[in-house]
Amino acid sequence: MEYIPSTRVDDALLSLLPKVVNVVGDRNITIIAAGGIVDASGYVAALALGAQGICLGTRWPGAPHRVLETPFFNEWKSLPDHETEANQPVIGRTRIHDREIEIHRLAGTVPNVTTTGDIESMVFYAGQSVGLVKEILPAAEVVKRLVEGAQLLIKQKFSH
Fold first, then answer.
1. Parallel, antiparallel, or unpaired for β 116-117 and 32-34?
2. How far apart are the first and last CA of the chain?
3. Is 43 within 8 Å of 146 (Cβ atoms)?
4. Neighbouring-strand partners of residue 117
5. In angstroms, rounded to a whole number, what is the distance separating the alpha carbons of residues 110 and 96?
6. How many whole angstroms from its chain centre is CA 77?
7. I want to staple 58 with a disulfide (CB 3.0 to 4.6 A). Which of 17, 64, 127, 152 is the partner?
8. What pLDDT does residue 65 have?
9. Predicted structure pTM score
10. 143 DSSP 8-state letter
């Protein structure tokens, strides 16, 4: 089995995707890019780097089928890029695989039956690109704008 050389757990999509494409090579494997894609420019970048499609994650908190307009979502999207859970205060504790861990504010740790602390503030699913989400839109509108924006961007920047 091949591996992706020099890959780190915290590799961003822009550095990881070309490595995946190189390892996959000419095999009949569809590459779906995920991580940091919330708008047309991210979609086009993923395609340019070799993905055949994308998977949206962080963009969906802005779609109405999710829990929206929470203080946590609004706080998260206004945080500077350098803010991470590592530099946030501890708001609780939990046990995972017989190991006690601290839970930091804005961490993605899912509370379980052993969790104590400020549970309402614990689960928060959003990535670094959440700051690019500027408005709450229906899911269909998110997809429509993403595709139309990508088509326009490709036409403007790459068509001669």
1. unpaired
2. 41
3. yes
4. 92
5. 10
6. 12
7. 127
8. 44
9. 0.62
10. H
The amino acid at residue 37 is I
**What is the full DSSP assignment across 7-58?**
--TT--HHHHHHHHHHHHTTSS---EEESS--SHHHHHHHHHTT-SEEE-ST
- Splitting the chain (160 residues) into consecutive groups of 10 residues, what average pLDDT does each group show? 57 86 91 90 95 85 51 66 80 91 82 84 67 80 94 91
Give the per-residue pLDDT at 71. 57
Cα angle, residue 147 at apex, residues 145 and 148 outer, rounded to 5°: 65
DSSP code, position 110: P
Cβ neighbours of 84 (radius 10 Å):
13
Strand partners, 104: 90
pLDDT for residue 10: 60
Q: Which residue has the tokens 């924006």?
A: 149
C-beta of residue 63 within 8 angstroms of C-beta of residue 71: no
Count the Cβ atoms, other than its own, within 10 Å of residue 87: 10
Query: How far is the C-alpha of 50 from the C-alpha of 52, rounded, in Å?
Result: 7
Q: What was the pLDDT predicted at 74? A: 64
**Both tokens of residue 72?**
């946590």
